[in-house]
Design a protein that fits this description.
With 236 residues, the chain is mainly alpha-helical. The protein has 11 helices and 5 strands; from the N terminus they run E-E-H-H-E-H-H-E-E-H-H-H-H-H-H-H.
């Protein structure tokens, strides 16, 4: 079920292995192998890896610094240690899991309470370090983490900001997706009215008489893992 790429020496998963019982066995084997690697990490490294995995899009040192209460230099030292273990990559100052399945294994090993608290910490840290004129992807990231943490006010506010940014650049379907999230996070009648007015404005600008099917906001931020994602990098 596993082969080795002759050039990169990386793991290759044969697609037919995903059918029938063999696929289940393979997924379990790969999951356990990565879980064993993760369990060997000392607590400080494991905590940082959890944050990076939950963030999905990766973290800069300023975000990691605020989440873990450490200096940015210490965050970089720990991030580089995870890079050396081939669990994380670093590109342009952003640390991200080296492979989707690594992030998946880390996230599935978390309790509901810990996952929620990591989402909350990420939302608050990103809100603190992000500039006022942050791009819609940043506002959207904050909104998503706040939603997962149950921080409705933060999720509502940043979903609206993400929607406004998308509307300005003509990304109307994405704007409606963020408004859908804002509607779900609203707690007062006046907040719902703000969402309704914003929705009407987007439809008018787009020239639509009714809203198209709303894409779940998760599909805009975190794509589902595909079989080809199990082609692991060298040394994992």
């Amino acid at each position: 079920m596993l082969a080795v790429d002759p050039v990169s020496s990386g793991w290759i998963v044969h697609t037919p292995s995903f059918t029938g019982a063999a696929g289940t066995t393979l997924a379990t084997t790969v999951h356990e192998a990565i879980a064993e690697r993760i369990e060997c990490l000392r607590d400080e490294l494991y905590a940082l890896l959890i944050t990076i995995a939950v963030a999905a899009r990766g973290c800069r040192t300023d975000t990691l610094s605020h989440v873990h209460g450490i200096s940015r230099l210490r965050a970089a030292v720990l991030g580089d240690a995870l890079v050396q273990r081939q669990l994380v990559t670093e590109s342009d100052g952003v640390y991200a899991c080296a492979h989707p399945i690594i992030a998946h294994v880390v996230r599935t090993g978390l309790s509901t309470s810990r996952r929620r608290e990591v989402h909350r910490a990420l939302a608050l840290a990103l809100e603190f370090v992000s500039p006022v004129d942050a791009d819609p992807s940043t506002h959207g990231e904050i909104a998503r983490h706040a939603e997962q943490a149950g921080e409705q006010e933060i999720a509502y506010r940043h979903a609206l900001q993400a929607s406004e940014s998308c509307t300005r650049r003509g990304a109307y379907e994405e704007a409606l997706s963020w408004l859908d999230l804002a509607a779900g996070m609203s707690t007062r009648a006046e907040e719902s009215e703000v969402v309704n007015r914003a929705t009407a404005r987007v439809l008018e600008e787009a020239g639509w008489h009714e809203a198209p099917p709303i894409r779940p906001i998760g599909s805009l931020l975190l794509a589902p893992m595909q079989p080809e994602d199990l082609d692991l990098p060298t040394g994992v």
